[in-house]
UniProtKB/TrEMBL annotation:
Residues in Alpha-D-phosphohexomutase alpha/beta/alpha domain copies: 16-157, 195-300, 325-421
Entry annotated with the keyword Magnesium: yes
Any one GO molecular-function label of the UniProt entry: phosphoglucomutase activity
Top-rank lineage group of the source organism: Eukaryota
InterPro entries per the UniProt record, alphabetical: A-D-PHexomutase_a/b/a-I (IPR005844), A-D-PHexomutase_a/b/a-I/II/III (IPR016055), A-D-PHexomutase_a/b/a-II (IPR005845), A-D-PHexomutase_a/b/a-III (IPR005846), A-D-PHexomutase_C_sf (IPR036900), A-D-PHexomutase_CS (IPR016066), Alpha-D-phosphohexomutase_SF (IPR005841), PGM (IPR045244)
Annotated keywords: Cytoplasm, Magnesium, Metal-binding, Phosphoprotein
One Pfam family it belongs to: PGM_PMM_III
Major place of residence: cytoplasm
GO term, biological process aspect, one: carbohydrate metabolic process
SUPFAM superfamilies according to UniProt: Phosphoglucomutase, C-terminal domain, Phosphoglucomutase, first 3 domains
NCBIfam families (alphabetical): PRK07564.1-1 (NF005737)
Family: Belongs to the phosphohexose mutase family.
Protein name as catalogued: Phosphoglucomutase 1
Length: 561
């Protein structure tokens, strides 16, 4: 009997504007507000032209967090009712964000729905998120997310096929007949790892990596999947294929609450990995976030590689990766808050450097235009033009390729890099769950202050250091590909010595506001000092100018990276 498609009346919600990485809310919001999930999914489908939607292919997967299975059931029922011809879903509904980007591109899908709140906590009391990626495999551009938001504000009904039930546990195709549909609706459950693993095999020299990781003089590594989606990928690719011992990979079983941990690969939330590296048994360590697009790189004894330095080192050693030997290097890019370490490599190699707002969609536009090969963000994201998302496992294999080629330690590679280029000391202070009104008022007052002409040339003295303001603005980006303008992308104070203080409100939280202060300072001589000591004067200035502690009621940051 053909399954019935029904139209259900609904009422709009005013708060479904997608942020930098989709719509993120507490789980209870999706559970307790009537049709909250349905409204947003319908808004996604309605944002796609009906002619493009009919018979199309859409990819679906998530990081396995709580509410993932429930959401997939609704998405399947609504995709069928909205004319989608085929859904490709990861086995058990789980697929990493980089793998979804890969599969969208491989199957020429019109897009993908990614169920993740990335590095935010999971579980019944945690966060849930929905992100829409478009045909290029990358996050939807602002024009698309704005359209989704506008539809969500006026939505009156949604279409659904409530009797449709899909089995996520069995690989293969499932066909469903729907009333008034000429062709059956197809759901294809696919191996979550294989397409992505095959892509990596065509990028890296797996034979050289296998020798590095399991050959006669192999190095010892430790990889922490933080109970996120990347665990099965690490086991299949690093352990089974490249020969790492099984105990090299920890926390590899995806869990709905990430084992009660915060799946954010930084020195605070991946402290267990850092501690386990201190005894010097392991030469290389890495951690991944909930959906597998972020990474943290560590050397022996827990030597920390900042994400800003990580992308710069990969850029300087880019031809250790066979893929770039074949494609050449078209350009480098970094987000505006990321340190200028990459700029120095770009200048030395005479490769174009782009400075973009935060958000991977800006990199994707440059990649689609053939202008960009490698990019990174200070928020632990690194990637190449093989897909249109940042890619944690790709970054780890890039680093291992450099180690295989240079046969040096992580620390020695970094120190050689600083000797060659100088060092950009970088830190970020996160103030999480700040009252949103207090945060916005502080940012407005701060912008008013730095926009005054008298602010430029002001001097700030801390101990024996004097910093003079050379430039201050609210960062604005004109896309060199399509000339679209993105305004209000972060407040910048740039000093005469090139040091920078940046203030931003983050768009990746689900509660309150996250205020971020970024500090970047270049040193040519003093390159082996403690980061927080070197940057202490600028941190003092940043807090004095913003009066952040007074304005937010916070005595210090939630996280320092």
């Amino acid at each position: 009997i053909p399954l019935q498609v029904v139209t259900v009346p609904t009422a709009p919600y005013p708060d479904q504007r997608p942020g930098t990485s989709g719509l993120r809310k507490r789980v209870f919001v999706f559970q307790s507000r009537r049709n909250y999930l349905h409204n947003f999914i319908q808004s996604i489908f309605s944002s796609i032209d009906l002619r493009d939607r009919q018979g199309s292919t859409v990819v679906v997967g998530g990081d396995g967090r709580f509410f993932n299975q429930t959401a997939i059931e609704v998405i399947v029922q609504m995709a069928a009712a909205n004319g989608v011809g085929r859904l490709i879903i990861g086995h058990h509904g789980i697929m990493s964000t980089p793998a979804i980007s890969c599969v969208i591109r491989k199957y020429k899908a019109i897009g993908g729905i990614i169920l993740t709140a990335s590095h935010n906590p999971g579980g019944p009391d945690g966060d849930f998120g929905i992100k829409f990626n478009t045909v290029n495999g990358g996050p939807a551009k602002e024009a698309v997310t704005n359209k989704i938001f506008q539809i969500s504000r006026t939505i009156e009904e949604f279409a659904i096929c409530p009797g449709l039930r899909v089995d996520l546990t069995t690989l293969g195709k499932q066909m469903f007949d729907l009333e008034n549909k000429f062709k059956p609706f197809t759901v294809e459950i696919v191996d979550s790892v294989e397409s992505y693993a095959n892509l990596l095999r065509n990028i890296f020299d797996f034979a050289a990596l296998k020798e590095l990781l399991s050959g006669e003089n192999h190095i010892k590594i430790r990889l922490d999947a933080m109970h996120g989606v990347v665990g099965p990928y690490v086991r299949r690719i690093l352990c089974e294929e490249l020969g790492c011992p099984a105990n090299s990979a920890i926390n590899c079983i995806p869990m709905e609450d990430f084992g009660g941990q915060h799946p954010d690969p930084n020195l605070t939330y991946a402290a267990d990995l850092v501690d386990s590296m201190r005894d010097g048994q392991h030469n290389f360590g890495a951690a991944f976030d909930g959906d597998g697009d972020r990474n943290m790189i560590l050397g022996k004894h827990g030597f920390f590689v900042t994400p800003s330095d990580s992308v710069a080192v990969i850029a300087d050693n880019i031809f250790c990766i066979p893929y770039f030997q074949h494609t050449g290097v078209r350009g480098f890019a970094r987000s505006m808050p990321t340190s200028a370490a990459l700029d120095r490599v770009a200048k030395a190699t005479k490769i174009e450097l782009y400075e973009t707002p935060t958000g991977w969609k800006f990199f994707g536009n440059l990649m689609d235009a053939g202008r960009l090969s490698l990019c990174g963000e200070e928020s632990f994201g690194t990637g190449g033009d093989h897909i249109r998302e940042k890619d944690g496992l790709w970054a780890v294999l890039a680093w291992l390729s450099i180690l295989a080629s240079r046969r040096q330690s992580v620390e020695d590679i970094l120190k050689d890099h600083w000797l060659k280029y100088g060092r950009n000391y970088f830190t970020r202070y996160d103030y999480e769950n700040v009252d949103i009104d207090a945060a916005c008022e502080m940012m407005e007052d701060l912008e008013f202050m730095i926009s005054d002409k008298s602010f430029v040339k002001q001097r700030f003295a801390v101990e024996d250091k004097i910093y003079q303001v050379e430039k201050a603005d609210n960062f604005e980006y004109t896309d060199p590909v399509d000339s679209t303008i993105s305004r209000n992308q972060g407040l910048r104070i740039i000093f005469s010595d090139g040091s920078r203080i940046i203030y931003r409100l983050s768009g990746t939280g689900s509660d309150g506001a996250t205020v971020r202060i970024y500090i970047d300072s270049y040193e040519r001589e003093h390159i082996f000092e403690d980061t927080q000591v070197i940057l202490a004067p600028l941190a003092t200035i940043a807090l004095k100018i913003s009066q952040l502690h007074h304005r937010t009621g916070r005595s210090g940051p939630s996280v320092i990276t």
